[in-house]
Write a structure and sequence with these properties.
Blueprint: H1 2-12, H2 18-25, H3 29-42, H4 63-75, H5 92-96, H6 101-110, E1 139-144, E2 148-149, E3 155-163, E4 169-175, H7 180-194, E5 199-202, H8 218-225, E6 229-232, H9 242-255, H10 263-279, E7 316-319, E8 325-328, E9 331-334, E10 343-348, E11 352-357, E12 360-366, E13 369-373, H11 388-392
Parallel strand pairs: 1-5, 5-6
Antiparallel strand pairs: 1-3, 2-3, 3-4, 7-10, 8-9, 10-11, 11-12, 12-13
Helix pairs in contact: 1-2, 2-3
Amino acid sequence: MKERMQLVSLYKTGRYTVTELARHFGVSRKTAHKWLGRFTAEGIPGLDERSRAPHRCPRATPALVALAVVRAKEAHPTWGPAKLTPCPDEVPEIARAWPAVSTRGRILGLHGLVNQRRHRRRVSPWFQPFLGADCPNAVWCADFKGWIRTGDGTRCDPLTVSDACTRMLLCCEILTKPDYSHARPVFERTFREYGLPLAIRTDNGPPFASVGAGGLSPLSVWWVKLGITPERIQPGHPEQNGRHERMHRTLKQEAMNPPAATPQDQQQKCDDFLSVYNTVRPHEALGQVPPASLYVPSPRPYPERLGDIQYPSLTEVRRVRSNGQIKWRGELVFVSEALVGELVGITEDVDSWLVSYGPIPLGLLCSHRPSLTPLPPAHSTHTNRRSVTDVFS
C-alpha cells in the first residue's frame, strides 16, 4: 500500500511518465495504469487489495448437500468426514451428489464442527515377537479403560476386549474392581460366545500380569492352560497395543463423557456403544465397513473342563506346592504363587536347568544354589513377528 501511494504521488507531480514509474517500482505498465485508474475512481480505498475469488463457482457443492453433511455430523458428533454418509431419510438426489472426503472436511470446518487436535510427537515402536494379527481371533487385545465415577459416586472400571484383525469389540463390561475374581467371569462369557484366540495382548498391570516368574498372574496362567499365549507390551509403550487404545478414545467420547447416573445406566451406554461400533460405525482400516461384516467366531470352542499341561517325555515335571515352591534335588525352590497346584517342566540346559510353564519360560535353576534365577529380557526386532502359520507349523 505504501509503494502504491508513492507511485500515485510521483505521477501527480507531472515529472514522471507511467513507463518510468513502472520501471522504478518493478511492475508492468498495465499494473501501474490499473492502480492509477483505481485511485482516480475510488480514491485511497481503491488501492486496497481485492479478493481474487471468482464471482461464480459452477462446480461448488450445493447448499442443500452441505446442510446434509452438517446433519450427518450432528447425528454422529465423534465421526470424522471419511465416515459420514447421508442420513437414511435424505432424498436420493443428495445421496448421489455426496461430496468427497476432503470436501466434507472443508464443509465441517466452515461450520465450526472440526476440533483441532494438539500435535503430539509419536514414539518409535518397539517390537517383540508378537503373533501377527493377520486373521480373526489370532490376537485379541484386552485392557481396562481408565476408571470413572458415575453420578451416584460409584467407581466403574470398564474391561474391554477386541479382535486385533477386524477391530471387533467383543466385550465392554463395567466392573466394580479390576481384579482376577471379577475379570475371569467376563472372559469366560466372551470365550463361550466367540471361542478362543491364539493370543491375548495386554499391558503389564494386574490382573493380566505380575512381577512373579514369567510375569504370570492367575489370569494369564488360566489363559495358558486354555492354549492362549499371553502377550505383554513393553512397559510405558501403549502404542504397541495402539488399535485397542484408539478404540478407547472413541469409547470415552461416545459413552463416558459425561458418565451416567448409575453403574447400570453406564453399562447400558457401553452396550449401545458396542452395538454401534460393531455394526454401524465404518472403520477406515477395514475399507469403511463395520467390524461385524468381517469378523467370524473362533473355531476353537471354550472347554468346560481343563486338565494339566502336557510336557514332552524327556521333561522332568514338578507340581507347585501350596506355598509356591517345588522340590528339586532335595531342596525347596520358590517358583510362583500364581502357579500353585500347576505342573511345571524342567529341561536341562548347558550348565543349568530351564523351568517353564507350558510355552512360558520362568527361569533357570543352577546347581550351585537352590533358587530360581529370572531370565534376562530379550529385545527382538520386527523380523521375529510370528504369523498364524508359524504357530501351527
